[in-house]
Amino acid sequence: MATDVEVPALGESITEGTLAQWLKKPGEAVAADEPIASLETDKVSVEVPSPIAGVLTEQLVQEGDTVAVGAAIARIDEQGSAAASVPSATPAQAAAATSTNPTGPAETPALREDAEPTPPASPDGARQDASVTTLSPAVRRAVLEHHVDPTRIRGTGKDGRLTKDDVLAAAEAQKGSPAQAGAQAEAKASDATQAKPAAPGPRPSPGNRNEERVKMSRLRQTIARRLKDAQNTAALLTTFNDVDMTAVIDARARYKDLFEKKHGIRLGFMGFFVKAVALAAKDVPSVNASLEGDEIVYHDYLDVSVAVSAPKGLVVPVVRDADSMSFAEIEKAIAAYGKKAKEGALTADDMAGGTFTISNGGVFGSLLSTPIINPPQSAVLGMHRIEERPVARDGQVVIRPMMYLALSYDHRLIDGREAVTFLVRVKEAIEDPTRLLIDL
What angle do helix axes 164-175 and 137-146 make, rounded to 10 degrees? Predict the structure, then answer.
């Protein structure tokens, strides 16, 4: 008996999505609750699980199609049996293969655009799990471009799947291997020999200038639209300050081992900044407010949207009631969201709401930036990298670990005096963390 696989509920106000990738092919066996397809919505990527165990008999939509919540996208036969994943060879092909390999048809490990690679045998003869070699289009292009063997790369994505970062890291490692160096040297020698023509010839043509057109994902389109809407609607302005990170760095160094032993999580910088924002928002509530028509909505709670890098773009899951959370609770919440983002497991509910945003471009090496607010929020705090710089202290030039802070805000709601005051309060709390404990 065949059972339809329907698009699950995707979150509040989300009625449709785009089928980004099929994870299972017709004829393949699937287990109950095993993902068979990946969907992209305006906010997140979600996987569609199989409702029963059986065999995928039919795909009702194609990759790139828009599907509504509740629509059937595939059929699973509970009584079916899995078909062979590789088509049977024709008699002529079989004969040709047997003539070159008496023990059986020769295997071809080459990776094609339209085929998945065959997992290599492990020392005990077992094949790798099929999920390790399920490649997304972006990963497959990276594999082909960098000429790496995907079956030799350990995937860090969900269920061991390869990510584009995994492929790029493997390509960098491959460049430094002796075998690769020898191949490059041999290629250069061959090129040098061929580069000596016997007689002058026509001028060589320039190298290939290839282009690739890739349709923007639904998530990327939404990010682009929302950011542009923010620029077109809000009166954006950014104010800057710098902060001496000495006290926070010393506190982390002094207590990090005890903190991790007690709470099971590392003490990071984000906990200090979230607490500092919560403290400053009490003095300047407009920074934690929003505009709805001609009304200002003030919040007596702080839901912090924390910008997290995911494989398909920047996402902003929300740490709710951050003003009432401890350092450990904040660090655990952010770590859990980071893990879910890396695995592509964030839900629409994880990113719903939010009254203020913190974006840490410093983890990528950014020195200074002007972040864009996340509507309907009215402000965003940008953190940047820490670097030692000479500063004046008590009439002396000293070296201190400094960080630039940037506060972008909607000038329709927040005055310059309020923005500067807020940023100074954050600076004071970071440079003297005792303020966080005694609410100053």
Answer: 10
User: Does residue 263 carry a catalytic annotation?
Assistant: no
Are the C-beta atoms of 222 and 407 separated by less than 8 Å? no
Catalytic annotation on 415?
yes
Strands 236-244 vs 72-77: parallel, antiparallel or unpaired: unpaired
Domain CATH number, residue 429 = 3.30.559.10
Task: Kindly list the averaged pLDDT for each block of 10 residues, start to end, along the chain of length 440.
Answer: 82 76 87 85 77 88 85 83 47 43 41 42 41 58 77 76 80 68 49 51 69 80 83 92 95 92 92 94 94 92 87 81 93 90 81 91 90 92 95 94 96 95 96 82
Catalytic residue among 33, 129, 257, 415: 415
Co-location of 296 and 339 in the same domain: yes
CA nearest 429: which of 271, 302, 266? 271
Q: Which two tokens stand for residue 388?
A: 């030692």
Structural domain harbouring 360 = 236-438
Catalytic residue among 129, 283, 349, 411: 411
